[in-house]
Amino acid sequence: MSRRLTLIWALLVAATLLSFETMGLGDARIGGALILLLAFAKVLLVGREFMELRHAPLMLLWLFQGWVAVTGAALACLLIF
Amino acid sequence: MNEEAIHPPRRAARGHVPGEEGVWVFIGGDLVAFAIFFMTYAVARRQEPALFDRAQALLDRGLGLLNTLLLLTSSLLVAQALAAVRRDDRRARPLLLGAMALGTGFVIVKACEYSAKIAQGFTLNSNDFSIFYYMFTGIHLVHVLIGLGVLAFAVSRFDNRGALRGGIGVIEGGGAFWHLVDLLWIILFALLYLV
Amino acid sequence: MGGNSLTMKICTLMGALAGTLLFLGIWPLAQMFPPLPPSMPAAQVADFYRAHQTGILTGGILIAASSPLFFPFAAAIATFLKKIEGEHAPLTLAFLMICAAGFVTVFLAGLFFTVAAYRPDYPDTTIAIMSDIAFFLFVMPAVPAFVQNIVTGIVILGDRRAQPVLPRWLGYMNLWTGVLLLPGLAVGLFKVGPFAWNGVLAFWVPAVVFAIWFNLMIVAMLGAIRRDALTQA
What we know:
The complex is a heterotrimer of chains A (81), B (195) and C (233).
Chain A: H1 3-20, H2 28-50, H3 58-80
Helix pairs in contact in A: 1-2, 2-3
Chain B: H1 21-47, H2 49-57, H3 61-87, H4 92-119, H5 128-155, H6 169-194
Helix pairs in contact in B: 1-5, 1-6, 3-4, 3-6, 4-5, 5-6
Chain C: H1 2-29, H2 42-51, H3 53-85, H4 90-118, H5 124-139, H6 142-157, H7 168-181, H8 200-226
Helix pairs in contact in C: 1-3, 1-8, 2-5, 3-4, 4-5, 4-6, 6-7, 7-8
């Protein structure tokens, strides 16, 4: 078994549990921003590590990372501000 | 099937596309479409934040969390299966079967969640939030079912001794699709259940 | 096989002609693009038909005329699928039946636009009902289109030749198109919002995706005809 992959999975689970606990923060805006940030960080990890995009040609990698950045930023603008 | 080596692809300085390139046509197209879905939702939520907050509070966040963990773990097993194939390790097929079992678990949890919601009177047309909830999770569920079919096809590529026949591209491409299903759910979970 | 490939080329181009006629009929003539909102009151719908009678009637002719021209196009696709499947070709037959059912709705949509505009003295609600039927005929076939695309994708990806008859990316394209057309199936449930028949997700996304699919199919099929894919083993 690949230890790197298992470690990535542990990070993903930790981020999931963390985003589940933000409800206790009180301020909905900060909580919402944190949830989105964690969600898109997880998406980045899944793409780079599980989908193996970090070994892919740079164009494919950056198309994906660009999608993550644009979608994440647009959702943050629409939902939080 | 191209008869490429089962062993790790020799990586030129940069650039191994996982699976065949066509898979990425689908994945890219799907990502663009879901980005439009997410934006549509965010715009609608801005117009009635109070209604969305109230309706979201009715969802069972525990089940959403459980499903997220199921898909994340399932994704891990698929990634480990690919690594196992590269090492010529015979555990690849059981790992894929495990991933399918977890994916099936996702479908069962979703079915329980839908029936509980409908029993409570929270149905497709209850309010503007419920429309998004059922349509998005429904479209995602179609992806999960297609993904299970893809994984089943990948499992069928192994012989009785657990060795992969044919190219590794099937495992890479099928795996990439399954991770896409996982990735989309991560955002749906955050948008529909948490934010 | 020069003559044969000419027939294939003509059948493929019929699809382009059909698409052009359909678009001209719906958009500049009938002015139904984008569609009338489902939430529009019957009286306003009826007035729209009365005010644009000539445009809608001629648009209806073009829409109805485009429908049969899609069939040679579907036949050309089926010829490729049959070539891939070989002697026993259940998916090709499934494709043909679904296509026949799906594209007949285009003819019927043109017919209902015509009926709705035909007698301006019909009561408002009668005209509105005809109009509703026409729009449902355009959007609800998302379901046959979904099945059709999935079947096409599966056949193209099942091609084991070293040089596939149709390129493999086209197979993935078909699967993607199928999934994105799917939201059209629920238009009956909504009158406003993204899933209504004029909404972002039930109308605009499927319309754009369908246009992309249609054009790429034609390009890929002409390419396959050019390299004589049908006559090779």
